[in-house]
Specification:
With 752 residues, the chain is mainly beta. It has five helices and 58 strands.
Length: 752
């Protein structure tokens, strides 16, 4: 058993004892404002969870108790990691297996204490990592405690309440007795204690559902389920946080994503300064005013530049907070200086969030070659690990005909995009396309998934005109696909409507620099499918032209009436390749035939004749009727076509045309990867498991792909558990595909 938190707390002075004084936060007032008793729950919660705590500043003790169920074979170790409001790890505890790694009866409990000192107010996250073969509980000196995630309880000898905030409107509650001890009559109580429904859990493993009408029940407080036996599985629509006692409840919603990023690092020299940017978001559910504070330690100067404090925000409004930092001239090279920026709601001092500032007096590791793969840590990604702090927006980078970078603007939001960002000289500039959209669509409400989920490609013509496509949210709450064109580096834009809600545009992939406007694909849904990741679409090809200096889309060419759709959010694969008067299109189709995967086709449009060729079947991309499996196409220097048929957790398949710039005949498909995921059903090398293809061709005709790779038992990461790596592979002009090379290892195993 390890007690790393105790050793850390007792072995060195905390570097944050100065924070309350320099920020002017009266800890005594906060404590007096809300005197709370200890909170906790018995060892009944099954499996991994996050527990949210809101402790008073000062000492915090967490006693964690677990009981191994021993239903399955294997060790049942529990690891607990406590993170402060800036997502910094401040304590770790481990409870080992009970000594019985085989199957057998549940054993006695094991307990250990995690002790830390809380230096700032806010929400602390306790991450419980464990198998599904144990239950855990905890006692804490923090009076406020919420559990995040599924409600799965597994001890029929324990009774008590389960409390949650009722959602607005109608919602559904589903209850199930896990085993025979969980069989019971289970009442659902509203805020006033009125029983609105009683679940008759008469059979283990059987769901019982109740839909609460929108106008039923008092909702000015918590609702409860009165459990006679905590051997149940509960699902409540739109409820992600819950607790076992009403006086332990607090609402984490106003603090979630209130101040981002959680921490920001810069590598500076003594006396050097930098500007950091944070986003403050009002999630209180009402207009609110926030006090802004910033402070540094050991001579580090931190001050809020903009906006002036206090700052008033409307409900849901976000504002950029600019913070200037300067290292003292006397700072010792190789040292680390720390500071903080905080925001406090003026109407409620409990709505307070802090973000960390770290200044490192050395050159950033990101400025020199890094050892691959990059191994991310929980809450510590590129900036925290390497001082990576580019002065450009973090999004897909494209290059114009003069080899200058152009990036579509975005924020941490999946929805927001407002401009193209261009490098002019040594300065990045933003050229907004919002005025053009507002003029074209009165009542313009923003852009749907503008951050990149529907694609964030920028394409160019021979005159260096730039093109990008967005999905506009109109005044009547509809979505309209719009091609944006700028002939002058974003100083002016024109708008051009496209049908459907999905789209693609031909980007540069190595040997397809376009003199003409880039071909555009529109996916117009005509029917739904029973499969989760499938729909039926018309695939339409547009070949825009410039007429008297103005862009016109022209009439579309119908390529397919059975197209599966587009999947641009990961990899952004090219769906077309154009050269010497021919545009080659690849796509997948839905089918009811019993085939091993998505039928993947290619066809060619001849610009001179205006004719579309017959489609050619290239491969079957597994599994069937799954839009994850869209293909990618590119051309090499000689004009040969190269296609990689996508997959969803299976090997990609590769083909090459037999003649340059001709899609009528192809090599047989070959698997791109056959190793990397070892299980009891694979050979010693494992199997290839790939998703989200991206394909380009280099100057020497080497092909490169990037993708998500499922890996397991092939390297030291994540203890042999399955994880999703960002990997690359290459294929020389002559020769087979090389091995997978992981570029980025995620901070957690499983789906990420």
């Amino acid at each position: 058993m390890r007690h790393g938190a105790d050793r850390n707390a007792r072995g060195r002075r905390s570097p944050y004892r100065w924070l309350p004084a320099v920020l002017g936060i009266s800890m005594a007032l906060l404590v007096r404002a809300e005197v709370t008793e200890a909170a906790g729950f018995p060892p009944v919660v099954r499996g991994a969870r996050a527990v949210l705590l809101r402790p008073d500043p000062g000492p915090l003790t967490i006693r964690i108790t677990k009981r191994d169920l021993n239903i399955y074979e294997g060790a049942d170790t529990l690891t607990a990691q406590l993170y402060d409001p800036r997502r910094r790890l401040i304590g770790t505890l481990e409870l080992p297996d009970d000594g019985n790694t085989g199957r057998g009866a549940a054993t006695e409990t094991q307990s250990a204490d995690l002790k830390v000192s809380c230096q700032m107010p806010g929400v602390y996250r306790l991450i419980i990592a464990c198998s599904h073969d144990l239950v855990f509980g905890l006692e804490t000196s923090s009076g406020r405690l919420m559990i995040e995630g599924d409600i799965l309880l597994n001890d029929g000898n324990v009774s008590g309440k389960l409390c949650f905030p009722p959602p607005e409107g109608a919602f559904k509650v589903i209850a199930q007795a896990l085993h025979e001890p969980g069989i019971q009559k289970l009442p659902l109580l509203d805020t006033k204690g009125t029983a609105l429904h009683t679940f008759d859990l008469a059979k283990a493993g059987a769901d019982q559902a109740f839909t609460v009408p929108a106008d039923v029940g008092a909702r000015d407080g918590l609702w409860c389920l009165d459990l006679k036996a905590m051997d149940v599985k509960i699902r409540v629509s739109d409820v992600t946080h819950w607790t076992f006692a009403e006086d332990a409840y607090f609402d984490p919603a106003p603090l979630r994503w209130m101040l981002l990023p959680y921490s920001e690092a810069r590598c500076l020299k003594p006396g050097q300064s930098a500007e950091l940017r944070f986003t403050l978001r009002n999630r209180t559910g009402q207009p609110a005013t926030f006090r802004l504070d910033a402070a540094g330690h050991d001579g580090l100067v931190c001050r809020v530049i903009e906006p002036a404090s206090p700052v008033a925000l409307e409900k849901g409004e976000a504002r950029t907070i600019r913070v200037a930092v300067q290292a003292p001239p006397t700072a010792k090279p190789g040292s680390v200086l720390e500071g903080i920026v905080s925001a406090t709601a003026m109407h409620d001092a409990r709505v307070v969030q802090s973000a960390g500032i770290e200044v490192r007096l050395w050159d950033p590791p990101a400025s020199r070659p890094l050892k691959m793969p990059i191994v991310l840590e929980r809450y510590r990604h590129e900036n925290a690990l390497f001082g990576y702090a580019p002065d450009y927006v973090a999004n897909e980078v494209y290059f114009d005909r003069q080899n200058r970078p152009v990036i579509r603007q975005r924020t941490e939001s999946a929805y927001v995009t407002t401009a193209l960002t261009l490098l002019e000289g040594d300065r990045w500039v933003e050229r907004s396309f919002v005025p053009a959209l507002q003029a074209a669509y009165p009542g313009y409400r923003g852009i749907f998934f503008g951050g990149g989920f529907l694609g964030a490609k920028v394409a160019f013509d021979g005159e260096n005109g730039a093109y990008t496509i967005v999905s506009v949210m109109t005044a009547d709450r509809k979505r309209q696909s719009v091609l944006l064109y700028t002939p002058d580096g974003g100083r002016t834009y024109t708008t051009h409507e496209l049908p459907g809600s999905q789209f693609d545009i031909e980007q540069f992939t190595g040997h397809n620099a376009l003199a003409i406007p880039p071909p555009v694909l529109a996916y117009r849904q005509t029917a739904t499918r029973p499969e989760t990741f499938a729909s039926v679409n018309d695939l339409l090809l547009y070949l825009p032209k410039k007429v008297n200096g103005k862009l016109t889309l022209g009439e579309p060419v119908l390529v397919s009436k059975q197209c599966l759709g587009s999947c641009q959010h990961s990899g952004g694969p090219a769906s077309t390749a154009t050269r010497d008067g021919k545009t080659h299109i690849v796509w997948g189709e839905v089918t009811d035939e019993k085939v091993p995967g998505v039928p993947t086709y290619v066809a060619t449009y001849d610009h001179a004749t205006g004719k579309l060729s017959e489609k050619v079947l290239l491969a079957y991309a597994p599994p069937i009727n799954d839009v994850h499996n869209v293909p990618a196409i590119c051309q090499d220097s000689q004009g040969y076509l190269h296609v990689v048929a996508g997959a969803h957790g299976e090997p990609f398949q590769y083909l090459r045309s037999l003649r340059p710039n001709d899609s009528s005949a192809w090599t047989k498909p070959v698997e791109v990867l056959s190793a990397g995921y070892i299980s009891d059903k694979t050979d010693a090398d494992g199997a290839g498991r790939q998703t989200y293809v991206s394909l380009v061709c280099g100057p020497d005709d080497t092909l490169h792909i990037a993708y998500r790779q499922w890996r397991q038992r092939v390297d030291p990461y994540h203890g042999g558990q399955i994880y999703a790596a960002l990997s690359v592979q290459s294929k020389p002009k002559v020769g087979p595909w090389g091995p997978a090379r992981p570029l980025v290892v995620p901070p957690v195993p499983g789906y990420s």
